[in-house]
Amino acid sequence: MMSPQAPDLSRRERRAIVLLSGGLDSSTALAIAVEQGYAPYALSFRYGQRHERELAAAQAVARHFGCVEHKVIDLDLRAFGGSALTDDAIDVPLDRDETTLASGIPVTYVPARNLIFLSIATAYAEVTGADDIFLGITEIDYSGYPDCRPEFLDAFAEVARLGTKAGTEDSRTLRFHAPLITLSKAEIVREGTRLGVSWELTWSCYAGGEQACGRCDSCQLRLKGFAEAGLSDPLPYAETDA
Q: Angle 209-188-227 (CA atoms, 0-180°, nearest 5)?
């Protein structure tokens, strides 16, 4: 059996790793990477979240944008729990008002999730020869997660420079792109629409039924974004007329 060969970096196209959850933000980040001329390598995670509906969405979105590869990595963050998304003993909050949404870190925060995901994305970038990594974090209209801030991403970029062969021996510069970081949900919806994101393929709800719940934080932020963008969300909702 022949051993796999490393990519010929002298003839490679502009490659980018794109963290893809299948939601509104990451799908738009993927669309931006494609518009900028990158050959996208999508990366998703089966990390013990409540459902796999979002992974089906990620696979559909990756196909829609013609990703070169789409890897789904298995992790077991349920072993730690500590989040409503990975611990059945913690309920997903519903029907929170805007003031509550904007205050504090919610129980849907998964401990160190983006730190873990970016570490694996960095390893994937080293192997594929990609120097660029895209993710859909935003500090506007977000749920209070500390790993969705520009200072977090800047600090991680320095860690990646110091802690990889790419950054220390190969003289590569790993660039971490958060093109949505200053955009509101409405602006993200408009941008994704311009770039051809098929919203019906995406999934944002923390529940995994046939219909989105319309009541969790993620649904409420998504619906707010579509409403403020003056557009209709094509997903069916169980608890709203949207």
A: 65
For the chain, the domains span: 13-229
**Other beta carbons less than 10 A from residue 230's beta carbon:** 9
pLDDT tens sequence for the chain (242 residues): 333 344 444 345 899 999 999 999 999 999 999 999 999 999 999 999 999 999 999 999 999 999 999 999 999 999 999 999 999 999 999 999 888 887 788 999 999 999 999 999 999 999 999 999 999 999 876 667 889 899 999 999 999 999 999 999 999 999 999 999 999 999 999 999 999 999 999 999 998 888 999 999 999 999 999 999 999 999 999 965 44
CA atoms within 13 A on the CB side of 84: 16
Q: What pTM was computed for the model?
A: 0.91
DSSP 113-172: HHHHHHHHHHHHHHHHT--EEE----SSS----GGGSHHHHHHHHHHHHHSSHHHHTS--
Which CATH superfamily groups domain 13-229? HUPs (3.40.50.620)
